[in-house]
Structure formats: C-alpha cells, structure tokens
UniProtKB/TrEMBL annotation:
The keyword Nucleotidyltransferase applies. Belongs to the DNA polymerase type-B family. Keywords: DNA-binding, DNA-directed DNA polymerase, Nucleotidyltransferase, Transferase. This is DNA-directed DNA polymerase. Residues 309-675 form the DNA-directed DNA polymerase family B multifunctional domain. Its EC number is 2.7.7.7. It catalyses: DNA(n) + a 2'-deoxyribonucleoside 5'-triphosphate = DNA(n+1) + diphosphate. GO terms for biological process: DNA-templated DNA replication. GO terms for molecular function: DNA binding; DNA-directed DNA polymerase activity; nucleotide binding.
C-alpha cells in the first residue's frame, strides 16, 4: 500500500508506505511507463453503432504500425518496443498493438506527440497516455493506491496563510494548527521545521500550496535547513492556470510535492472541502486514485479514474484525446433528444401540507437498471427501440458503466442506513464517505455528455434524460390518480398536496407502487407544514429553483435556521450574499413562518435597516464574495467587482480569473477602486444605501409568493404607521 510516491530525476520511482513506526521508502529501479498504439482500421473495427471495415490482422502488426515501429526504434525517449494484444474498445476483441516502454514519465507525452506528427492525426490512436503520475504507477504495477490505515491513523499538520499575502516578509502571519509560529520570517521557518520534526506528519494540509516555495525561499535567504518532506527539496508538478468548464471560469493553483508527505491544498481541493480527510480516503479506496492526486482532482477526474480501472480490468485500453463522432440522427430525433429533465412549473404562492418525494440517485440508477453505457446505447447489434421517445436500442450485453456505478450506489445506500445508529467519530466518518460518493453519483450523468470524457457518449446522455422524463411523468400520473395534486416537480423530485374533496391513498403506499414499476426507489423525503414557491424576478411565472418551506416537526436552533426551513435559490443559498443580508433573510423567514404576515416581516426588516443606518453592523458581516471570470482589463463595465480587482492591484494582491475577490461596498456611486474596500483592509464604513437595497431584495424573495414585491415593501417601510407586535 502507498502513502505517496516520487518520480526521481534518473527515471526511478520511490514509494512511501505507512508503518506502525513511521514511513518506509522503497526505490524501484526498473519501472518503465508504457503506452500503446493502434491504427485507424483496428481502432474503428466493431465500435458501437460505427462502421465495420476490414478486420485488422490478428497475429501481427498492420503495415501502418510496422512502419511506425521502425520510425520509433532507437529514439532516445523509447526504452523498448514490443507487440502486445489488447482490446481497443469494449466491443472489440484483443488485437496486436504496438507497445512502447518509455524511458521516463516525461517521455510518454514526447512519444505520443511524435506519433501524431509522424502521420495524419487519424492514422494512429495512442492509448494510456495521459494518466496522472501516481495513478499510472499504481495501475501499471498493481500497487494499492491508499495508505495502510490498519497500522495507524494518518498524522496531519495544518498550515494557514492569508490568501492575499505574498513574499517572505508576510510569513509571520502563518499559523500552525491555528497558532502563530513566530514574529519574523526566520522564526517562522525555524518554527515550521520544529513542528514537522515533532509531529512527523504524513499529510500537510495547507490553505495554499504557494507556501511550499515561499518557505523554501525564506529558508535559503536566512541560511536555514528546511525539509517539509521526509527528504530535502520539493518538486513543482504544475503551474497555475485558468480554465473554462460549462461556461464557468475556474482557476487551478500551482501544485507542489515534497518527498514522503502528501500535500493537500485547501484552495484547490473540492473533496477535502466537501468531505474532509475521511471522505478523501474513502474515495481513494474506491477510485484507486492516490491521496495526493485525489486532493486536487475534480469530480470528473475521480470518476474517470474509476472508469479507467474498470476498463483495464476488462483489458480495454484508454484512448488519448478520445474522439467519438455523434451517430447520424433524423432532424426530428435531434429535436426530441436535445432536452433535459422534466420540470413542472410551480404554483406560485404558499401551499399548506406539502410532501416531497425523491427518486433515489435517479440518474445513476437509470444507468444501472437500464444498462446505459457508451457501448450499449445504439450498439448496432440489437434491433430494438428501448429508449422512450428516442427509440434507441440498448444492448442485451452488460455495459461497463453500470458496473462502475453499482458498487457506489450500494455503498452509499448502506452508509445512509448506518448513519442514524452511529455516533461521534464513526458518524463523522460515515457522513464524510456518503458526501464524497454523492458527488461522484451526481456528476456521472453529465460526464457522459462531456466532450473530453474518456468513455463519454452523447447518446448515453440523451437516453438517461429520456428515461428520467418518462419516470417523472409516470410518477405524476400515479400520484394524481391517488388523490394528490402536484404543485411542483423538477427532474427527480416532486411536491404534492392533498386534493380537496377527494380521498387520498397513503403516500408511502403509492410510492412503493411507483418504485416497483420504475425499478428505482421513490423515497418519501419529508413533510412540510407549508412551502412557498417564488415567482421569477420580473415575471409572475414560477421560478423553478427558488422556494422555501418549513419542515414538519423541526425546531429552530439557537443560531440560524438549521434544518427547520429548507431553502433553495434565494439569497441565503447564494455564495456572494453577505452574512448580514443572509441573517436578515433568516429573520424574515422565521417571522413569515410564525405569522404569514408581510407587515410583520417588513417590521423586522425595518429594525434591521435601522441598525445598519446607525452603524451598528460589523463590516466583516457585509463582505461580498464574487468569483472573477476575466482579467480586470477585459471587463467592459465598471462593476463593483471590477473596482475590487483594481484595488487588489493597488494592494499587490492580484486575483486571477477563476479566483474569488472579497470586498465591502463603501461608496457604490463613486468611481474606480474607491467604491470598495477589500476584506483584509481596515473596514471603518460601508455604503448604507447599497446594503439596504440588498436587504430589501432578500426580503422580497420571502414575500414575493404572497404578492409583495420590492415596490410594495419600500412603500410600507416609508409609511408612518405602528409596527405589528408579531414583528418582534
């Protein structure tokens, strides 16, 4: 089992394994990373729904591969060439391919690029090229990716550093386990080394991995020996970059590694943020992706690692830069297929006695129960019209994707059953594991439509949606027949109320019947005393994802709303909303629950606005949190975010596209950087009028279901009248 591993400069690999007494380092002398090459004929032969050209040779290399072999023979990046039979797709038999052992990990891409330059891009297909470094070694040597936690728990050390700071002189602001280390850069470096020597951590959890080069720079400047790892030095694995995914701009920080210890960068770790170290370790065991790589991996990368392992277990190679053309469709089929999940327009207003039902892991279970997989949809060997509305065939042979997701679905179901009976650390571990698995299951459907997915296919995406639409419509019909009125439905969830003057069959009974017919469990989620569906901002039509409701039997905690009121889409659920505005909305929700009185809600709002005007609000509760999508010079409008970006330049704390800028509005009507102050600056004042407007909009979200919009709220606030007693 492996804690982490290092690729050494001479091509060797050092693995670090957890033991009861510490960590053992082992050097592997003869490891050589491997890639494979097939030619056009062997690559296309037998693909699902694709052409059926002349089969390639079964006993030796094709002429094209033989020519490539001669070209590569003797090149410095190539350690050895051989012929080996493997499957190139899930629907083909094993055929001879060119195996290439590279001299180093860096040589793999060098060889792949030369192959693409040797002939037209469609002549050769390279396989097993772009695996991440640690995953590749574990795959090719059959090494377990996770540490052996049966010998002892992992030891961690947390290092925090302000995100806006940089440079050696800022190091005194570093904290270790929430405590300052020293008052000078020299003391900080010495203190970090002392803490590492004392605790001997296996995992360094850093607020930003930029601490690695910064600490080493300071150590060099002051002549101090620093070892963040279990050996001297560090490695820069990747530079920072900006990327775009589904229209959203993201930022990937630089990544670093130190020998013998795992670095988790909190600013670049989705799974650590969502599920903690326990959740990460659970996914390491399930995905086979080593902990350090899982720490910075996206959901798609973890899912891809699972798919890669399943493919290799079936002797199917993993294509580099996969390209699968969409199969021919009639225009009418394109129109039918280009649709998402079913949604029912909600009935705007407040509804009493509402019940929510949800299909359990709908999309993963559709994949599993309907055998949806890239090689099964429109397979070419079955003449059926299985997919509703699209008439796509689904192959009778088992697909690989259900085998990837099935264990995850079962594991999460088992974990959810264990959680109510668990307590303390065990409960936290189970909840972390459940959260980590949830994100994989949530994303598996969308990843089928992702153009860069290794084994994705748009027809799978379309088929899953088609089944989901049918399931929700069938559920709606069954519930209405049983005496229930559907007030809203969206993809996998449905809300119902009793129909007046009709006898209702028990929901649990109806849900069981729907479950049996669908083959996917329709769970009774919860009952609400009331649910309010909001209209769109500039329309009377219902907003699909903006609602809130009081769960039956839930009590309010001392702070916040807890689980008492479920909210979706309104300001309190939006990351950019200042904490004070969120608190104002929470107060409004409490009073609305108790009174249903718009006047009482406005009276609460009036008092909160008064404290704002009198300067009683802590400015740190007014911080706006916005993600930046472009460089400051690329914006055409002088928004508050642009003002904040200009201020970061002035303060020497530049923010790259994809990162977050946090600021307080001090004068929205001013020009330039003076409109805001950054979170870390002295915050002595704020723009009262701007925050008043934000609070009124938050109150409007609460009152819009009963017909009170911004104008009516402001009219009430401006009027001279006695406040309601319920408003207190």
């Amino acid at each position: 089992m492996t804690l982490t591993l290092d690729y050494l400069e001479d091509g060797r690999v050092a693995t670090w394994a957890l033991t009861a007494d510490g960590v053992v380092r082992t050097i592997h002398e003869d490891y050589r990373p491997t890639l494979f090459v097939g030619d056009e004929a062997s690559d296309l032969y037998g693909q699902a729904g694709g052409p059926d050209p002349t089969p390639p040779p079964r006993d030796g290399l094709s002429d094209a591969l033989t020519e490539l072999q001669s070209f590569l023979d003797g090149q410095e990046a190539v350690a050895e060439l051989d012929v080996e039979a493997h499957r190139q797709t899930f629907r083909t038999e094993a055929r001879p391919l060119l195996r290439i052992d590279a001299t180093s990990i860096e040589a793999v891409r060098t060889i792949a690029k030369r192959i693409r330059q040797f002939a037209k891009p469609d002549v050769y297909t390279c396989y097993n090229v772009d695996f991440t470094r640690q995953l590749r070694y574990c795959l090719e040597t059959d090494t377990p990716a996770g540490p052996d936690r049966s010998v002892r728990d992992l030891r961690t050390l947390h290092l925090e550093f302000p995100s806006h700071e940089s440079g050696i002189e800022s190091l005194p602001q570093l904290t270790l386990e929430d405590e300052r280390v020293g008052s000078s850069p020299r003391e900080v470096v010495a203190g970090v080394q002392q803490a590492i020597d004392k605790h001997d951590p296996d995992v360094l959890v850093m607020s930003t991995a930029d601490l690695v080069p910064l600490l080493f720079e300071a150590a060099d400047a002051y002549g101090i020996d620093l070892e963040l790892g279990r050996r001297p030095g560090y490695t820069k694995l990747a530079s920072e970059s900006t990327y775009t995914s589904y229209g959203n701009v993201g930022h990937s920080p630089a990544r670093y590694a130190v020998p013998g210890r795992v670095i988790i960068d909190e600013s670049n770790s989705f799974f650590y943020h969502e599920s903690g170290l326990d959740g990460c370790l659970d996914l390491v065991a399930r995905s086979g992706l080593p902990l350090e790589e899982l720490g910075w991996a996206s959901i798609g990368r973890v899912l891809t690692a699972m798919q890669i392992r399943e493919a290799l277990s079936r002797d199917v190679l993993v294509p580099w830069r996969a390209w699968r053309p969409e199969l021919f469709k009639m225009a009418s089929t394109l129109d039918d297929a280009d649709r998402g999940g079913t949604t029912f327009s909600p009935d705007v207003g407040v509804h009493e006695d509402v019940h929510e039902l949800d299909f359990a892991s709908l999309y993963p279970n559709i994949i599993r129960t309907r055998n949806i997989s890239p090689e099964t949809v429109r397979c070419g060997c079955c003449d059926t019209d299985d997919v509703p509305g699209l008439e796509y065939s689904i192959c009778e042979r088992d697909g690989y994707l259900p085998d990837v997701l099935g264990p995850l679905i079962d594991a999460r179901s088992d974990i959810k059953e264990e959680i109510p009976n668990a307590a303390g650390d065990e409960r936290e571990r189970l909840e972390a594991a459940s959260s980590a698995i949830k994100w994989i299951l949530v994303s598996c459907f969308g990843y089928q439509g992702f153009s860069n997915a290794k084994f994705g296919r748009i027809e799978c995406h379309e088929a899953i949606n088609a089944y989901a639409r049918e399931l929700l419509l069938d559920a709606k019909a069954a519930l209405e027949e049983a005496g229930w009125h559907v007030v809203h439905g969206i993809v996998d969830s449905i809300w119902v109320t009793p129909v007046d003057d009709r006898q209702q069959r028990p929901l649990e009974e109806v849900a069981e019947e729907i479950t049996e017919a669908a083959g996917i469990e329709l769970e009774y989620e919860c009952a609400f005393d009331w649910v309010a569906f909001c209209p769109m901002r500039n329309s009377e039509s219902g907003a699909l994802t903006r609602y809130f409701g009081k769960r039956r039997g839930e009590e309010y905690p001392e702070i916040g709303l807890g689980d008492a009121i479920k909210t979706r889409g309104i300001e309190g659920r939006q990351r950019s909303t200042p904490a004070w505005v969120e608190n104002v909305q929470n107060d409004a929700l409490r009073v609305f629950d108790e009174t249903r009185s718009p006047e009482a809600v406005c009276d609460v709002l009036r008092r909160r606005l008064q404290e704002l005007r009198e300067g009683e609000v802590d400015p740190t509760k007014l911080v706006v949190d916005n993600r930046v999508s472009k460089d400051v010079d690329d914006y055409s409008m002088e928004t508050l975010t642009v003002a904040a970006l200009k201020r970061t330049q002035i303060e020497g704390a530049g923010v790259a596209p994809g990162q977050t800028v946090r600021y307080v509005v001090v004068d929205a009507d001013a020009r330039g950087a003076g409109r805001v102050r950054l979170e870390f600056e002295d915050l002595e004042r704020y723009d009262t009028e701007w925050y008043e407007d934000a609070a009124v909009r938050a109150a409007e979200s609460v009152l819009s279901p009963v017909g009170w919009r911004e104008g009516k709220i402001k009219q009430y606030l401006a009027g001279a009248r006695d406040e309601t007693l319920a408003g207190y």
